[in-house]
Amino acid sequence: MRKAQKALAPIILFSLFASVVQAETVRGPVVALLKAPVPDEQQISVTLNVGDIASIDYPADDTFVEGVEIEIVVPDAIRRAPGNFAVVIYRDITPKPQNGIMTLKGSRMLLAPIPIVNRLFVLLPTRSPNDLHNGPGTLVADSQSQASDFPILVTIQPIAKGIPSAIMDTPFTLRISTVSIAKGGLSLQISGSHSTEPIAWGTDNSPVTVTLNGEPLAYQKAPYLLDPGIYRMSIQSSIYQSEYRTFSIDQGTTTAISVELRKPEARARFDAPQGATVFLDGAQVDTSRQLTIEPGDHTVLFHVGDYTVSKRFSAVAKKDYEISLFLDIMINETK
Length: 335
Fold this sequence. Notes:
Elements: E1 2-3, E2 24-27, E3 30-35, E4 44-48, E5 53-57, E6 65-73, H1 76-79, E7 85-94, E8 103-113, E9 119-125, E10 138-140, E11 152-158, H2 165-168, E12 172-180, E13 184-192, E14 208-212, E15 215-216, E16 224-226, E17 229-237, E18 243-249, E19 254-261, E20 266-271, E21 277-280, E22 283-284, E23 291-293, E24 296-304, E25 307-315, E26 320-324
């Protein structure tokens, strides 16, 4: 796998990419069944002879894949015979390639003579072709390759007559890798309290909006592709409490964030005499710390010795309450 690099050198002019509507017959033994690796996996290498066919399948995960790269290590014998051999690539293959099959059908997507280079690279973009940059010894397809185009067939074929058998029998090396995008992924799921169903935010009927670094973030199920860096996310809602997150995005990896939104709550602090026991809705509370309570009606009870007093109150969301018991000595004059 190599990263896409900017280069100002021109593309090889004699490359020919073509979309052939009718299927062509492809002859030659299928000797290798390969799958393009995902980014950061080691490239796959196989040795072929002229006329052999390698089948290449689509990467198992294309989240960070910008293109499939085919590298051909050109042997000296073929390099000394320029114009006699060409790399040919087919797509839309039938039947399914298997080792040993001698005849298949497919649509030709590339036929290019092999120039005088040590290594020839063929890049098949899986996103916009403009995102891949070419240089000397590199061919870039002018159309986007889809997963449905795969598997593809790659072969080296003679395009001239009278080639000596010693050259025809020269093996060459084929290496398969992927070009990765300079992005990381964000997988974001937001749900409401007491529910596992995700919230589709940002729609007309949704009570939730999300911003990322101050910009609105539209809802999507697939991971977001973001530049590496630090991000600040704000989640605002008309029925839930606001939430804030700060996180980092690393190139080539997906950061998963799951947020459970909570209903707005009230807060209560208790001031009780020494030795008093306090209950809220029948449950004893720790009076040394502040409690969060749900909006609505509640009953508070103080128990001091043989003395018990209770009272009902209604809590409002986002309000703070101080609950205390006031004891005093009353002296009345009787005469």
